[in-house]
């Protein structure tokens, strides 16, 4: 007899033939009611045991965390809280779970405790809901791009180029760690390393994605990227997943349209496909915030917040306008900002972004046309000679969700910029080739996947939205 | 006016309003016929220029590789080879391409040459078709698992565990490469490294995937994996993408069913979605093989071969049966194998696998129940005490496509196996926990994505099915 998943059984919602289901015991109440979960849905199925008809020693083994196999009849539930339940006819314990030793007891655990038991934390409602949503968002992303004519591209993880410039890198090597081979001048002889040169973990697939956009038209990457920065915060990971679309013949306006449409589409996907998980996480967040002062609570419940983003236009504001708003803002005048805004050209800090999004506009904001000096070398210089066609999308509670730009497509302008920043042309000969042969306007953006999952789940720490977080001093599991 | 893609225009196949299209010139014939490609499809759209009405200097800039913008009318084609064409009204060169310097001339280039110009090789028909198919297969994989109740899971790339045992690893570090900090005993002090311990690039996400299967039920990974092995062959990469499903309550038979169903589904997807690209690659392969002796040519054309796999059952054969077949085979008796098969327990080499698949069974073969001694520690020991519930799927022309097993779910048996292989329990405490708390039968497999792309495209070298291959002495781009 083939087994059913709990999701299948609950969706059926009617009396049927005999059923077989395997899963893990969440609770066993009154020696009679087993709440069984198999991960297929947030919801448990209630399995009702006539304890008089079962061996006492068998029933003792029905403990939280035990894996069991249940055979029985699916019937309309007599109790409240579920429409159907299983009248258990046969019961088998597949794997015991010691009632005291098992770390995931049926009680509230701190997220810190669950991080230390990350291999078991998806056995809780919160983390199973988070990871189902993460999976749904991942599929929604692939679906969106595929349906819109994009090709998925796997850019390299190990890179021999250190010109990406997005941050500190991890070195990848097979040289003897203690006694690496040396050149005559005492420097390390990387010619003897696996790749014959110094290599690192990628910080971005953008430059390679550009090569494919300039032949296949519309491409996107979805892969891991790395930052060797000693940032022990609730928003940074050393290893995280990034989505980077890149489109030929698209300018910055098109880029903003794409990013907004994309974000709305994938968020709408989870509204349609993950209602149970979102409702659970919404309640969780409300509970969590009860202990916080009113001013620190989320202004909207989780689902309302997601719907708000899906239904409303993002506010598009130039950097110059944003500086004006910030300069004249209350926290600036009252010197409440840690970094006061006095002049055009200042790099915006998280406090400024949050003010714009959460206090001033109260909706997602797209800032564009940033000063060239605070942005990357490959961004397209505007005709004013001092700003670049860059954009950042800022989300309430999250800050920067997307960073993108129109790319500098003019060979001479790009070369000058690289020269000014001491980026050797030999390093990026292939990137320059794109500007030599059939160059064209093109644009793209990067989206930190974990930031999106945080927004969609209401989780406050990035370590809680990826299975096994990599952070300074932590590479467990 | 919004631009159209070539794919959209060709699909329309009727006379319409004015159209706008941007792309790259493939050829410009008789100062009149531009073959324009934008990557949206293998096919070019023919743009017909009344050269009398255009500036001569403009027309000189219509060279292979140039990016242009064409405005005109879509009309029924007068010539053969296409149903529609564009009568060009306006023409703009967006980016020139020097007619002599441009590396991708309209002629046959060797794959070796194109590997050196991997940033431009998707501007050829062959590589654009290969990469579109790669993208299609990638989406088909996500779609299959999502529709079958699996959750996508991102397992860590940087791992602190060296017990995965699937091969040589790359070290990841931020320590000073030349003068790493040392302990008193002279060993490297990895406590000062970024993660506070020695870390490497993952060789497999399986062990972590097991933790999620044992809570979420059905999960899969699709991510990069690494081997620091000095294998300079047409079938090995140092960095490649792997798909690893893992399912709770599924035994080895279920695992074989899943793998077979999965492979057929994703191959069927490209038959339905990538007919143009497959037809082109089929012709390419036939051309390429014309110079080979009859015996070395593919037994079936590409599409027929894919259909054959989709339509026929894979042959399931135990290792023991396979050894009997090989022992009594002609090449074994005539001593043609490099490694002669004499005894049960021998590890099968590529020559043996190819004999079974290509000569004996002439279809994909699933070998199962291998000797425990030649397989990994986590595979489920059979009751005979000498074989494990492992399976490999062998494909014609490719060899091993899938390797999988039922996992050892019994704590004591697993501990003994680890002890025998000197794998410290402290290293895999979390993996052992799965056997302590609610253990159950579970299984999974790994599929090397590039092997699948090779099979689906008929490409003979693995470096030609991934954008930027990483191999010994090569991390260019």
TrEMBL record, chains A, B:
It catalyses: tRNA(Asn) + L-asparagine + ATP = L-asparaginyl-tRNA(Asn) + AMP + diphosphate + H(+). Its main location: cytoplasm. It is found in: Cytoplasm. Residues 131-467 form the Aminoacyl-transfer RNA synthetases class-II family profile domain. CDD domains: AsxRS_core (cd00776), EcAsnRS_like_N (cd04318). Its EC number is 6.1.1.22. PROSITE patterns: AA_TRNA_LIGASE_II. GO terms for molecular function: asparagine-tRNA ligase activity. It is an enzyme of class 6 (ligase). Keywords: Aminoacyl-tRNA synthetase, ATP-binding, Cytoplasm, Ligase, Nucleotide-binding, Protein biosynthesis. NCBIfam families: asnS, PRK03932.1. Belongs to the class-II aminoacyl-tRNA synthetase family. Homodimer. This is Asparagine--tRNA ligase. The gene is asnS.
